[in-house]
Design goal:
Blueprint: H1 2-6, E1 13-16, E2 21-23, H2 29-37, E3 43-46, E4 60-66, E5 69-74, E6 82-85, H3 86-97, H4 104-113, H5 117-120, E7 122-125, E8 136-138
Length: about 150
């Protein structure tokens, strides 16, 4: 489905969010877009928790501030809501996802975790607002199916 969808994208950036996620109204879209277009990052993920989970810290790297916005470099690929370069998506589709039927995260987690960071350029948006970096919430769209 991703390959078919990418054929329709004619913008340099895309937002990935499934229908059962809610995004914070405080996301600095223009600034994040400029940072991705500058080549600093390929993908900026919106975090779903108030802080980095301690078991995930091993996949987190430098904390840095870019144009006044805090980020955490990461090797952890997650399909949680994010802003990404369309060229990045086209490249991973060609190199890893073409003709695959598994979820993107299942396929990309391993290659990204093995680094190097410079190959993937993944980051977590980390604006601490009132002690929390939560920029999205999962609405549990399958709740009624259980």
């Amino acid at each position: 489905m991703l390959g078919r969808g990418l054929e329709l994208v004619n913008t340099p950036l895309l937002v990935y969010a499934e229908d059962d996620w809610s995004l914070s109204p405080n996301i600095e879209w223009d600034a994040l877009g400029r940072i991705i277009l500058s080549g600093r990052y390929n993908l900026i993920r919106f975090y779903a928790y108030c802080r980095i989970h301690p078991l995930h810290e091993g996949m987190m790297h430098e904390r840095e501030i870019v144009d006044g916005i805090p980020f955490v470099r990461t090797l952890q690929y997650s399909q949680n809501p994010h802003l990404a370069s369309t060229d990045f998506y086209r490249a991973i589709h060609t190199s890893h996802l073409h003709d695959r039927t598994s979820a993107i995260e299942e396929i990309m987690h391993g290659p990204c975790a093995c680094g190097p960071w410079e190959r993937w350029k993944l980051a977590v948006y980390n604006p601490v607002d009132e002690g929390s970096m939560m920029m999205c919430r999962h609405l549990d769209g399958r709740k009624g199916e259980r």
